[in-house]
Amino acid sequence: MRVIVPIKKVIDSNMQIRIKADKTGVEDSGVKMAMNPFCEIALEEAIRLKEAGKATEVVAVCVGNQKSEDVLRSAFAMGADRCILIVTENKIEPIDVAKTIATVARHETPGLIITGKQTIDDDNNQTGQMISALLGWPQITFASEISLENDKIISRREIDGGAQKVESKLPAVITADLRLNEPRYASLPNIMKAKKRTIESATIEQMGIETKSRIKIINIEEPPQRKAGVKVSDVKELIEKLKNEAKVI
Known about the structure:
Blueprint: E1 2-7, E2 9-11, E3 33-35, H1 37-51, E4 57-64, H2 69-78, E5 82-87, H3 94-108, E6 112-116, H4 127-135, E7 139-149, E8 152-159, E9 162-169, E10 172-176, H5 188-194, E11 200-203, H6 235-244
Parallel strand pairs: 1-4, 1-6, 4-5, 5-11, 6-10, 7-10
Antiparallel strand pairs: 2-3, 7-8, 8-9
Helix pairs in contact: 2-5, 3-4
Protein backbone atom coordinates (compact mmCIF):
# COMPACT_ATOMS: atom_id res chain seq x y z
CA MET A 1 0.00 0.00 0.00
CA ARG A 2 1.31 3.42 -0.98
CA VAL A 3 0.89 6.33 1.46
CA ILE A 4 0.94 9.97 0.31
CA VAL A 5 1.91 12.68 2.80
CA PRO A 6 1.40 16.34 1.81
CA ILE A 7 4.20 18.57 3.16
CA LYS A 8 4.29 22.34 3.61
CA LYS A 9 7.22 24.68 4.20
CA VAL A 10 6.55 27.21 6.97
CA ILE A 11 8.48 29.63 9.16
CA ASP A 12 10.32 27.68 11.86
CA SER A 13 8.21 27.59 15.02
CA ASN A 14 11.19 28.81 17.08
CA MET A 15 11.50 32.04 15.08
CA GLN A 16 10.07 35.38 16.16
CA ILE A 17 7.26 36.31 13.75
CA ARG A 18 7.45 39.81 12.28
CA ILE A 19 4.74 41.68 10.39
CA LYS A 20 5.72 43.26 7.05
CA ALA A 21 6.01 47.05 7.03
CA ASP A 22 3.00 47.39 4.72
CA LYS A 23 0.98 45.06 7.00
CA THR A 24 0.03 42.75 4.11
CA GLY A 25 1.52 39.60 5.63
CA VAL A 26 4.29 38.01 7.66
CA GLU A 27 7.95 38.67 6.86
CA ASP A 28 9.48 35.47 5.48
CA SER A 29 12.62 36.73 3.71
CA GLY A 30 15.83 35.92 5.57
CA VAL A 31 13.87 33.81 8.05
CA LYS A 32 14.61 30.19 8.92
CA MET A 33 12.05 27.87 7.33
CA ALA A 34 11.14 24.29 8.24
CA MET A 35 8.64 21.53 7.65
CA ASN A 36 5.25 22.23 9.19
CA PRO A 37 5.20 20.35 12.55
CA PHE A 38 1.88 18.60 11.84
CA CYS A 39 3.21 17.48 8.44
CA GLU A 40 6.19 16.02 10.30
CA ILE A 41 3.82 14.04 12.50
CA ALA A 42 1.92 12.78 9.43
CA LEU A 43 5.18 11.74 7.74
CA GLU A 44 6.41 9.97 10.86
CA GLU A 45 3.19 7.96 11.03
CA ALA A 46 3.47 6.95 7.38
CA ILE A 47 7.08 5.82 7.91
CA ARG A 48 6.04 3.81 10.97
CA LEU A 49 3.34 2.07 8.93
CA LYS A 50 5.98 1.10 6.39
CA GLU A 51 8.35 -0.12 9.09
CA ALA A 52 5.53 -2.25 10.49
CA GLY A 53 4.96 -3.83 7.07
CA LYS A 54 1.55 -2.16 6.64
CA ALA A 55 2.69 0.16 3.82
CA THR A 56 5.06 -0.44 0.92
CA GLU A 57 5.96 3.12 -0.10
CA VAL A 58 5.85 6.61 1.43
CA VAL A 59 5.54 9.52 -1.01
CA ALA A 60 5.95 13.10 0.27
CA VAL A 61 4.33 15.80 -1.88
CA CYS A 62 4.92 19.54 -1.52
CA VAL A 63 3.16 22.35 -3.38
CA GLY A 64 5.33 25.46 -3.31
CA ASN A 65 8.19 27.35 -4.89
CA GLN A 66 11.52 25.84 -5.91
CA LYS A 67 13.00 26.59 -2.47
CA SER A 68 10.55 24.08 -0.99
CA GLU A 69 13.01 21.36 -2.02
CA ASP A 70 14.57 21.87 1.43
CA VAL A 71 11.64 20.33 3.30
CA LEU A 72 11.47 17.45 0.84
CA ARG A 73 15.16 16.76 1.52
CA SER A 74 14.16 16.62 5.19
CA ALA A 75 11.41 14.16 4.27
CA PHE A 76 13.96 11.97 2.48
CA ALA A 77 16.22 12.13 5.55
CA MET A 78 13.36 11.02 7.81
CA GLY A 79 12.60 8.01 5.60
CA ALA A 80 10.33 8.97 2.68
CA ASP A 81 10.85 6.75 -0.40
CA ARG A 82 9.94 9.36 -3.00
CA CYS A 83 9.40 13.12 -2.98
CA ILE A 84 7.38 15.16 -5.46
CA LEU A 85 7.50 18.96 -5.76
CA ILE A 86 4.64 20.71 -7.54
CA VAL A 87 6.14 24.09 -8.36
CA THR A 88 4.26 27.36 -8.17
CA GLU A 89 5.50 30.85 -7.41
CA ASN A 90 2.01 32.03 -6.52
CA LYS A 91 0.60 32.14 -3.01
CA ILE A 92 -2.00 29.41 -3.13
CA GLU A 93 -4.99 28.68 -0.94
CA PRO A 94 -6.05 25.35 0.63
CA ILE A 95 -8.51 24.50 -2.17
CA ASP A 96 -5.72 24.73 -4.77
CA VAL A 97 -3.43 22.56 -2.64
CA ALA A 98 -6.26 20.05 -2.18
CA LYS A 99 -6.92 19.93 -5.94
CA THR A 100 -3.22 19.36 -6.59
CA ILE A 101 -2.88 16.57 -4.02
CA ALA A 102 -6.06 14.95 -5.31
CA THR A 103 -4.65 15.03 -8.86
CA VAL A 104 -1.40 13.42 -7.65
CA ALA A 105 -3.44 10.80 -5.78
CA ARG A 106 -5.40 9.86 -8.88
CA HIS A 107 -2.10 9.21 -10.64
CA GLU A 108 -0.30 7.48 -7.75
CA THR A 109 -3.34 5.45 -6.51
CA PRO A 110 -2.41 5.42 -2.80
CA GLY A 111 -4.30 3.42 -0.21
CA LEU A 112 -3.97 6.21 2.34
CA ILE A 113 -3.30 9.94 2.51
CA ILE A 114 -2.07 11.30 5.84
CA THR A 115 -1.96 15.07 6.26
CA GLY A 116 -1.24 17.29 9.22
CA LYS A 117 -4.48 18.58 10.71
CA GLN A 118 -3.37 22.16 9.96
CA THR A 119 -0.34 24.32 9.22
CA ILE A 120 1.07 26.67 11.83
CA ASP A 121 1.11 29.69 9.50
CA ASP A 122 -2.50 30.03 8.33
CA ASP A 123 -4.14 27.51 10.73
CA ASN A 124 -6.92 26.87 8.20
CA ASN A 125 -7.53 23.17 8.98
CA GLN A 126 -9.12 22.66 5.55
CA THR A 127 -6.82 20.82 3.14
CA GLY A 128 -7.33 17.26 4.39
CA GLN A 129 -11.10 17.59 4.38
CA MET A 130 -11.08 19.11 0.89
CA ILE A 131 -8.87 16.30 -0.46
CA SER A 132 -11.37 13.79 0.93
CA ALA A 133 -14.29 15.57 -0.73
CA LEU A 134 -12.53 15.88 -4.10
CA LEU A 135 -11.58 12.19 -4.16
CA GLY A 136 -14.85 10.97 -2.67
CA TRP A 137 -12.90 9.10 0.03
CA PRO A 138 -13.84 8.73 3.71
CA GLN A 139 -11.94 10.91 6.17
CA ILE A 140 -10.88 10.67 9.79
CA THR A 141 -9.77 13.98 11.28
CA PHE A 142 -7.64 14.79 14.36
CA ALA A 143 -6.28 11.26 14.65
CA SER A 144 -4.28 10.58 17.83
CA GLU A 145 -3.86 6.85 17.15
CA ILE A 146 -3.91 4.78 13.95
CA SER A 147 -3.92 1.05 13.23
CA LEU A 148 -4.50 -0.89 10.00
CA GLU A 149 -6.40 -4.18 9.86
CA ASN A 150 -6.80 -5.81 6.45
CA ASP A 151 -8.71 -3.34 4.26
CA LYS A 152 -9.78 -0.93 6.99
CA ILE A 153 -8.19 1.69 9.21
CA ILE A 154 -9.04 2.15 12.88
CA SER A 155 -8.35 5.49 14.52
CA ARG A 156 -8.72 7.11 17.89
CA ARG A 157 -9.56 10.79 17.65
CA GLU A 158 -9.84 13.37 20.38
CA ILE A 159 -13.13 15.21 20.82
CA ASP A 160 -14.40 17.72 23.38
CA GLY A 161 -15.92 15.03 25.58
CA GLY A 162 -12.93 12.67 25.49
CA ALA A 163 -12.00 10.24 22.71
CA GLN A 164 -13.80 8.59 19.83
CA LYS A 165 -12.94 5.36 18.00
CA VAL A 166 -13.61 5.45 14.25
CA GLU A 167 -13.29 2.78 11.56
CA SER A 168 -13.07 3.40 7.84
CA LYS A 169 -12.52 1.42 4.67
CA LEU A 170 -9.51 2.19 2.51
CA PRO A 171 -8.57 4.28 0.63
CA ALA A 172 -9.05 7.10 3.11
CA VAL A 173 -7.74 10.49 4.21
CA ILE A 174 -6.39 10.96 7.75
CA THR A 175 -5.47 14.26 9.39
CA ALA A 176 -2.86 13.92 12.15
CA ASP A 177 -3.26 15.47 15.58
CA LEU A 178 -0.44 16.58 17.85
CA ARG A 179 -0.47 13.45 20.04
CA LEU A 180 -0.37 10.92 17.20
CA ASN A 181 3.40 10.44 17.62
CA GLU A 182 6.72 12.16 18.24
CA PRO A 183 8.65 12.59 14.96
CA ARG A 184 12.16 11.16 14.78
CA TYR A 185 15.32 13.17 14.29
CA ALA A 186 17.00 12.49 10.96
CA SER A 187 20.48 10.99 11.33
CA LEU A 188 23.49 12.77 9.83
CA PRO A 189 24.16 9.95 7.30
CA ASN A 190 20.54 10.13 6.13
CA ILE A 191 20.74 13.93 5.83
CA MET A 192 23.84 13.59 3.64
CA LYS A 193 22.20 10.89 1.50
CA ALA A 194 19.07 13.04 1.11
CA LYS A 195 21.11 15.77 -0.60
CA LYS A 196 21.81 13.40 -3.51
CA ARG A 197 18.30 12.00 -3.89
CA THR A 198 16.18 12.91 -6.91
CA ILE A 199 13.05 14.99 -6.32
CA GLU A 200 10.35 14.48 -8.94
CA SER A 201 8.99 17.79 -10.17
CA ALA A 202 6.19 19.34 -12.20
CA THR A 203 4.58 22.78 -12.36
CA ILE A 204 1.11 23.34 -11.03
CA GLU A 205 0.05 24.38 -14.55
CA GLN A 206 1.23 21.00 -15.89
CA MET A 207 -1.04 19.39 -13.32
CA GLY A 208 -3.97 21.29 -14.84
CA ILE A 209 -4.63 23.31 -11.69
CA GLU A 210 -5.71 26.93 -12.17
CA THR A 211 -4.77 28.98 -9.13
CA LYS A 212 -6.51 32.21 -8.22
CA SER A 213 -6.81 34.38 -5.15
CA ARG A 214 -10.19 34.17 -3.47
CA ILE A 215 -9.21 35.96 -0.25
CA LYS A 216 -8.09 39.57 0.02
CA ILE A 217 -5.93 40.43 3.03
CA ILE A 218 -6.82 43.94 4.15
CA ASN A 219 -4.53 44.33 7.14
CA ILE A 220 -2.42 42.25 9.52
CA GLU A 221 -1.47 43.52 12.96
CA GLU A 222 0.29 42.07 15.96
CA PRO A 223 -1.95 41.33 18.96
CA PRO A 224 -1.96 44.01 21.66
CA GLN A 225 0.56 43.63 24.46
CA ARG A 226 -0.90 42.12 27.61
CA LYS A 227 -0.45 43.94 30.89
CA ALA A 228 1.88 42.38 33.43
CA GLY A 229 0.29 40.14 36.04
CA VAL A 230 -0.04 40.95 39.73
CA LYS A 231 1.18 38.81 42.63
CA VAL A 232 -1.08 38.46 45.63
CA SER A 233 -0.06 37.53 49.15
CA ASP A 234 -3.00 35.30 50.07
CA VAL A 235 -6.40 33.97 48.95
CA LYS A 236 -8.25 36.83 50.63
CA GLU A 237 -6.40 39.42 48.55
CA LEU A 238 -7.01 37.34 45.40
CA ILE A 239 -10.76 37.27 46.04
CA GLU A 240 -10.83 41.01 46.73
CA LYS A 241 -9.06 41.75 43.41
CA LEU A 242 -11.34 39.41 41.48
CA LYS A 243 -14.35 41.08 43.03
CA ASN A 244 -13.38 44.76 43.00
CA GLU A 245 -10.88 45.11 40.14
CA ALA A 246 -11.59 42.32 37.66
CA LYS A 247 -15.28 42.24 38.65
CA VAL A 248 -15.57 38.56 37.72
CA ILE A 249 -17.19 37.49 40.98
